[in-house]
Amino acid sequence: HFPHKISEQVQSLVKEPNTVDVLRQCIGPNVKCMQTMMFMKGPGKRGQACHQDEYYIPTRDRSLCASWIALDDATVENGCIWVIPGSHKKGIIYPMENDTDERFDSSGCSYGHGYTESDWIPVELESGSSVFFDGYLLHRSLPNKSQRFRRAFANHYMSAESLLPWTNDGRFDVGDDMRDVLIVSGTDPYAQFKPVQDLTKPFVRAETRQKGAVFNETN
Q: Model's pTM, two decimal places?
């Protein structure tokens, strides 16, 4: 997580012009990035259960947008993303619960949305291509059943006008604003009041599916 903190090449990719053009259409002229992630899903690795990014990263104004770039061909076999088209339109953040499905890690699963297995569709991508999706979209990934990696680079962006009461390991009070961000388009309207900070350090996420592991909704 947060590879842009240690790599100028990654930071340049976060600001890649074609990516920024799409973000400006989805979010607006002023855009900031608060999170970058490198996914290295090897053969046999589990997927992540149904969730919404907005559950974890509260943008307050529904401007959260993910950019997911395939570094390898992403296929059903090696664990591509699956989505429920249109599931973001209701603007509801569904609760999360512990998931015991062995296909997934223990990072929790959205429930109460009313969708069924037949509503899911795979998003297969060729290496070098990308998909953008709303923070309220229900999405997941399945295990890598192939003999090759499924690597991807994923970033989260939002409107620079919106406050961000969030840190990577918890949430701030509703009136707080996490200023460890990277402006990728336009201007930072809060720069005159509070400087950008360096709060989060890069880290490698450990395996989460362990015997007895339980998702904690209070985190």
A: 0.91
